[in-house]
Amino acid sequence: MLKVFKKVITFAILFGIIITVIPRSNALDNTEIQTDDPIIIDAIENIKFYSSFNYQTLTADRLNRITQDFYLPANYGDVQITYTIDSKYLSLSQEKETISLRQGTDYVDQEVFKVSVKTLPNVLVGEVVFSIHASLSYNNNIDYHTFQGQVIPVIPDDFLGGSLYTLVRYGKMFLEGALLTIGISLLGTIIGFILALLLATGKIIKTTELDNKFQKTLKIFMNKLSSIYITIFRGTPMIVQASFFWYGFGLFGDPLLCGLFVVSLNTAAYIAEIIRGGVESIDKGQSEAAYALGLNYTQSLLFIIFPQAIKNSMPAIGNEFVINIKDTAVLSVIGIFELFNQATKITGIHYRQLEAYAIVALIYLFLTYSTTSILKLVEKRMGMKPLELTSSN
User: Fold this and answer.
1) Is the pLDDT of residue 265 over 50?
2) How many Cβ atoms from other residues are within 10 Å of residue 203's Cβ?
3) Which range (30-34, 137-141, 335-339) has the least confidence?
């Protein structure tokens, strides 16, 4: 089991190194204009590059996401322009071409230089910055200006290459989603456990002949309330509960807090039944011995029965935490970007669902397997008998 734990730690460290060390560049600004000639300044400020695919203008953002050939204008009005490019991924043709650009309802011819993409960087290299050095001349006045952009990798067509690309390029998104999933699951299980203690107490508490009318009424009320609560939250899916509290009430005004609230309430209902079963599994002789020592019903429950019941129930409670890791995926319905919703967001970027969902499935498997292995190790050290629990949703 110790070997399994070491593998888990090693994988997490390597994954963190991969997604943090890979270089990532931000959008780059162009160099400042140096000339005083208003005509050349106008040319620099309004010069447009064009995509070779559909002749659309390359904005600054699109220039930082180059994946295919594009054109550079050979002139802007009376200003003549020549170029050089610093990049091993691009090649600049020295021969001018003429393309027809649409302006309003008419077409105009534009002389251009073609920039060809020789190759694209792979995902491990990441975005690669290139510089376009323009020389602008007008009436014997010459000025120089540099435009900057980036050549970016594209997702390969094959499954393995696409999976590697998706994992490396969007690794931080997967990591953020996994951490959020673990956080919601862990906090939801802890809060749910605390609530479950109250619910289980209300469910198992019994009236006695020594109780006055108020005490009997209170115990009956607690019993009915706990039973109704458990029935409702075990009888409805978590996805329906999340939608009900968020879209129906806009609870807390924050989907994350609302999601944590729903997971806690849902978990409480299941753990309450686990604890109730643990209490009922305690031999009645324990209670009789407590009474013989002078403890009343409440004292015997708190100091004798509950500690044993909770210890016996810990494996099942741990399994409930594992189940929550998977079931928090339904919180994507209210806009929480946990692991599953991050994968959905990634598929919307490059429309490759298979790779993204395969990766997220493996991450879920890794999280549940590693958590289960750790829980089994704890159970073994504490001498607890493992209990199996089916999915709550």
Assistant:
1) yes
2) 21
3) 30-34
Q: Which domain holds residue 224?
A: 165-382
How far apart, in whole angstroms, are the C-alpha atoms of residue 346 and residue 173? 8
* Signed CA dihedral, 9, 10, 11, 17: sign only: positive
Position 390 in a domain: no
**Torsion, CA 70, CA 75, CA 76, CA 81, rounded to 10:** 90
User: Are residues 269 and 319 both part of a single domain?
Assistant: yes
Instruction: Please enumerate in sequence order all residues whose Cβ is within 8 A of that of 117, keeping only pairs 6 or more positions apart, or say none.
Output: 66, 67, 68, 69, 89, 90, 151
Q: Work out the widest C-alpha separation in the chain, in whole angstroms.
A: 111
pLDDT tens digits, 13-52: 555 555 444 444 443 445 555 567 788 888 888 899 999 9
Pairing of strands 70-73, 106-117: antiparallel
Any domain includes 8:
no
Residues 175, 41 within the same domain: no
Residues 144 and 262 occupy one common structural domain: no
**227 and 187, same structural domain?**
yes
Residue 383 buriedness (CB in 10 A; 0-12 / 13-18 / 19+): exposed
- pLDDT above 80 (res 2): no
Instruction: Name the pTM for this structure.
Output: 0.77
Q: Which CATH number goes with the domain that contains 174?
A: 1.10.3720.10
How far is the C-alpha of 161 from the C-alpha of 156, rounded, in Å?
Answer: 5
Which pLDDT tens digit goes with each residue over 213-245?
898 899 899 999 999 999 999 999 999 999 999
What crossing angle do the helices spanning 353-382 and 339-350 adopt, rounded to 10°?
Answer: 160
- Rounded to the nearest integer, the mean pLDDT of the chain is 87
Q: Write out the two tokens for 88.
A: 């091993």
